[in-house]
């Protein structure tokens, strides 16, 4: 399997840059980078290779960031987490506080299972936990989450484009 040192040397720069884009704080990004690789060490035996190793590491990094927000920032609301999660990769000018209520409205329009899966991801649940709850595969949970977020992003982008 993979040697963690090799993974670290190969991906540390990319993950650090990604974490900097989230935190805008070099020290915090370094801490989260360390936590990312500690998390990878713990879960490497369970890595099945269903996704690219880099994608898997980025996923760990993202959830280390979410954990940090939940634990250390008592004033981070569910709305803030939802906005970060749903709008990841969307142009910053669309991501405004007023978009949070629209995101929640759009989530409410989704099928109950799709909505619940996205809400579970926002709250930090793993795809494994979601798969157990809904008796589906982890891959299915990922696809449902991805497609639901994509639909919401497309609507947000379209609405923003129409408002210009």
Write a brief structural summary.
76% of the residues lie in helices and 0% in strands.
Structural overview:
Helices cover 76% and strands 0% of the residues. The chain has eight helices and no strands. The chain has helices at 4-23, 26-43, 53-72, 78-86, 97-109, 112-122, 127-134, 138-163. The radius of gyration is 16 Å and the shape is globular.
List the helices and strands and how they pair.
Layout (H helix, E strand, L loop, with lengths): L3 H20 L2 H18 L9 H20 L5 H9 L10 H13 L2 H11 L4 H8 L3 H26 L1
Tally of extended strands?
0
Q: What is the overall number of helices?
A: 8
User: What is the end-to-end distance?
Assistant: 51 Å
Stretches where pLDDT is under 50 for at least 5 consecutive residues are none
Oligomer state of the chains in this structure: single chain
Rg over CA atoms: 16 Å
Share of helix, binned: over 70%
* Biggest pleated-sheet summary: none
Helix and strand sequence: HHHHHHHH
Mean pLDDT: 79
Name some characteristics of this structure.
164 residues, mainly alpha
């Amino acid at each position: 399997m993979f040697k963690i040192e090799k993974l670290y040397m190969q991906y540390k720069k990319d993950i650090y840059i990604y974490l900097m884009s989230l935190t805008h704080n070099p020290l915090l990004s370094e801490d989260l980078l360390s936590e990312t690789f500690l998390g990878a060490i713990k879960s490497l035996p369970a890595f099945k290779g269903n996704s690219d190793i880099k994608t898997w590491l980025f996923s760990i990094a993202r959830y280390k960031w979410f954990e940090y927000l939940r634990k250390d920032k008592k004033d981070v609301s569910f709305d803030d987490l939802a906005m970060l999660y749903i709008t990841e990769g969307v142009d910053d000018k669309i991501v405004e506080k007023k978009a949070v209520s629209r995101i929640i409205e759009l989530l409410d329009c989704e099928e109950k299972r799709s909505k619940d899966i996205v809400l579970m991801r926002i709250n930090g649940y793993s795809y494994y936990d979601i798969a157990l709850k809904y008796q589906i595969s982890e891959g299915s949970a990922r696809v449902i989450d991805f497609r639901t977020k994509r639909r919401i992003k497309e609507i947000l982008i379209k609405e923003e484009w129409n408002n210009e």
